[in-house]
Request: fold
Amino acid sequence: MAIGSTISDVLPLGSRLNELGRLEVGGCDTIELAREFGTPAYIVAEDDLRARARAFRQAGADAGRPDLQVLFASKAFPCTAVMALFAEEGLHCDVASAGELHLALAAGFEPERIVMHGNAKSVAELQMALRERVGLIVIDNFDEIERLRRLIEAGYGPLDAPGPGATLGQRPPEAPAGAAARPQEVLLRVTPDVRGQTHEKISTGQANSKFGFSVADVPEAVRRIERVQGLSLQGIHVHIGSQLTELAPFERAVAEVARLAPTIGECAIWDLGGGLGVRYLEAQPAPPPIEDYVRALLDAVRDPAQAGAGRLPLSEDGSAGGGATGAPPRRLMIEPGRSLTANGCVTLYTVESVKRNVSTWVAVDGGMSDNLRPMLYGARYEAHIADRPGGETECVLAGKHCESGDVIVAQALLDDPREGDIVLTPATGAYGYAMANNYNGVLRAPVVFCRDGDARLVVRRDTLDDLTARDVR
Ligand SMILES: Cc1ncc(COP(=O)(O)O)c(C=O)c1O
Reply:
């Protein structure tokens, strides 16, 4: 299925130029949106997110695994309304902190549809995950196994013994009447030493990663988990990185999971993480479509030897050689984040000033407080004036913050930009809102959902009082 707009693939599905020559997103005129909701603002085309969620699920069915569980990696856009939309679309949810778990529950995900991640889960976060009975906890390191053992022995979680009060101010962990004891199901996060081509700051599959167990440590991790009464090891998790635009590294990662599976007894679940890249600029080559990505993963699951050509199965101690690849997993999971949300959202700004020195500086009312990615890892975006898209004046689209590096688009091509223009940057739906901050006391931007010409505010803008709301006087 082709997802995109008639103007540019980087804009949300259904975007168009209306009769007034203005860009329209989700059927709404962006100039009108700026007037009604102010700027900066994240504008989300609801239908775009839904189409991508459906594309992932359909791709699983088309490739012979209608049971493929698609988890929304909520870190990409951790907003209750976005998460609720994906819950409605039948997705599951990946969370990586107590805060994201709280949001997922508020958004309506049943606990069993939630998977808890994190390389540094606090005791309080593990307590919360156990108490809420999340579907799976993905164990990242040996200390976490110990922490879980201590918590379960202390009465938190799955064995339903009454335990000490909760520390996150939520309900205490007493067993519901009649609840049966059941172990907490867990996965082991493994770093398979597979690298894809992406920015080093979002690469996670390499041997020297802060995430997960190295392959050599897997057998020992399995032994230790098996000794904890109350934990049930169900399988393996891998996530090799983000914004990957080639399929081969994903396939190699699947092959590595298949090699490891026999060391995990009955390895029922393979969670293959997220990472599919998106297009931020029209000029960039298109990444593989969702359908091709899912099919490649599922083909690799069916025939891992082919996918990982050349590597030998693992022996008992985790080193290469010996052993056999196991049965295919009973449950398959993937965790897309960026590819579900990035292109479904644009950010609207107002031009505050245009200044010319060596460059033409177009300064807008947002920047690194609503989109940190250009500063964090040189991420590139396009920009368009909402009622004069296209253009040939090369400009620097600069943010309003007190850092020279606060540049949203280093080489924007705009049509004679002027003070008061509404500018939009496409493809800001992933890791923008998620990393929003109040630098310089700037108020975080609202989120507006648009569909069929109707716009509704789902997250309001910060107020000045929000800036002092946490002060203790
Ligand atoms: C464990 C895990 N799963 C899924 C994702 C989502 O990745 P992406 O947004 O690239 O699809 C991430 C991103 O960092 C992650 O760490």
